């Protein structure tokens, strides 16, 4: 393979594994996008119960604690993630071209049924300075 992304991306944990059993909002980890021009969230799912439903949004802010966060507009969100019992267990992704430095993914469950998320990662791309430093853990 001649081309590689290895030194052109940075990977950050975006959401720890969770299982919800009620209608709730679960916020992911705040990701600092400094030094990168693109942000893609990848969600890994497990079992989604028959009556469950969950949607994902991306929030952004210029504050490191996400104070005053707003949802990234539909025009600045690439793709969407909505989980239902008919969703395949697997991998889903959505991106942000939001303009604010700090971003996070949030899951909103709307039914009192089990939804299992194995976790999520954020892939930061298009670094302002490449190569990106090696990551270990």
In short:
By secondary structure, this protein is mostly beta strands. It contains no helices and 12 strands.
Write the layout of secondary structure elements.
Elements: E1 10-15, E2 18-20, E3 24-27, E4 31-32, E5 36-48, E6 53-61, E7 70-71, E8 77-78, E9 82-84, E10 91-96, E11 102-109, E12 115-127
Antiparallel strand pairs: 1-12, 2-12, 3-11, 4-11, 5-10, 5-12, 6-7, 6-9, 6-11, 8-10
Describe the structure using short key phrases.
137 residues, six-stranded antiparallel β-sheet, mainly beta, 12 strands, single chain
What structural class do the secondary elements suggest? mainly beta
Looking at the structure, what is the overall shape? globular
Number of helices: 0
| Cα-based radius of gyration, to the nearest Å | 15 Å
Uncertain runs with pLDDT below 50, 5 residues or more?
Answer: none
What does this structure look like?
This protein is mainly β. The chain has no helices and twelve strands. It has strands at 10-15, 18-20, 24-27, 31-32, 36-48, 53-61, 70-71, 77-78, 82-84, 91-96, 102-109, 115-127. Strands 1, 2, 5, 8, 10 and 12 form a six-stranded antiparallel beta sheet that branches. Strands 3, 4, 6, 7, 9 and 11 form a six-stranded antiparallel beta sheet that branches. The model has no long low-confidence stretch (mean pLDDT 88).
